[in-house]
Structure of Deferrochelatase:
Amino acid sequence: MTDSDTHDISRRRLLGTAGAAGAAGLVTGAAGITAAVSEDGSANGSGAPGALTSVGATAVAFHGRHQSGITTPLQSRGHLVAFDLAPGAGRKEAAALLRRWSATARTLMAGGAPAEDTDVARDAGPSSLTVTFGFGRTFFDRTGLAARRPSQLDPLPAFSSDALDPKRSEGDLWVQVGADDSLVAFHALRALQKDAGGAARVRWQMNGFNRSAGATARPMTSRNLMGQVDGTNNPRPSDPDFDRRVFVPEGASGPQAWMAGGSYAVVRRIRMLLDDWEGLSREKQERVIGRRKSDGAPLTGDTETTPLKLDERGPDGKPVIPVNAHARISAPEQNAGAAMLRRPFSFHDGIGADGVPDAGLLFVCWQADPLRGFVPVQRKLDRGDALSPFIRHEASGLFAVPGGAAEGEYVGQRLLEG
Ligand SMILES: C=CC1=C(C)c2cc3[nH]c(cc4nc(cc5[nH]c(cc1n2)c(C)c5CCC(=O)O)C(CCC(=O)O)=C4C)c(C)c3C=C
Ligand SMILES: [Fe+2]
């Protein structure tokens, strides 16, 4: 029996629901958003139970040169989970686990359900589900693969503003689940946890969110919990140097040959000190970042996508974008070209005894080499970012995320069986 035989791909009737949506009528709105609507105008249509809108029906490919969840548009729900291998589990058990995880991810991302399903996502489509797998530094010692551990996984330097909790940091294995439906994301997370069986145990878990998919007529850059437009100056896949910045090149040699097509994820749980932040006037908040809150445009004017004029001075002779503004200090031109792809989720884990929300940013950034991405930029921010008094880095992880699995392969096979 093959892996896919053990899963009932038709259970959630992806094709059936697509057909039903077709029967109800597929429309493309002015914004280019396609949705299933019925004659009575309801999204599902009373005559088509289980029909999906394009949000539910959208599927992301599991197989490919890169894993999903890196260049995939931000999803509305995310779970970040680190696992440690169980005592006694080594390379053989890890390989079997990655094989199981890959089969489950492939099935769920296509809208199927695992055997003995819980039905949590029964009426849902794939909802842009992605599952991304990575290896932490400690994985290589536990599996006897230390000789194949890339130097890019060397520990991140300590930063003066770090207040890191080791129990919520690092881990042998890392899984990122993203979806545009919370039930679909939970369903996947639970299935992956069950797959881990006796081979690995959850070390930490963080849950995050972004704006609901399809909520705005024109997809726009997301906002974070400080109210800023966040993600504007991310590298774009159409940039000529995007691949070089984000992915390990094909033909990489030495200990990271198995990482071709992969990327390194830096994960930081960054608490926002929201009472302090919200106590600032809007003008002061905008000077902290160097951009307007309303539309994300630089303080030097125009629109969100207009480049920052870092040399422009105001009537008082001072730079319009302050010297310690976050967007100035983190810009590639201030960091010898260092850049990363930021792909975060917001988090909110309740309100503390002091009445302040335990909320902030699950900062996830992707790069071909952390020493040419996160590290130099965070070093610079650590020395004088106007945002620093309003945030606290509480947990950290660095993970090697291998390239995508080819048909018939599982994620990490080139490391575990190479
Ligand atoms: C070390 C990397 C970075 C950390 C940590 C970080 C935390 C952080 N950032 C914001 C809000 C914004 N960041 C913005 C831009 C921006 N930030 C980084 C890096 C880190 N941010 C970079 C590389 C950039 C792009 C700089 C550029 O090229 O201009 C912005 C502006 C809009 C944008 O370009 O995205 C905002 C807003 C928060 C709230 C935060 C921690 C909680
Ligand atoms: Fe930032």
User: Anything to note?
Assistant: Confidence is low (pLDDT under 50) at residues 1-47.
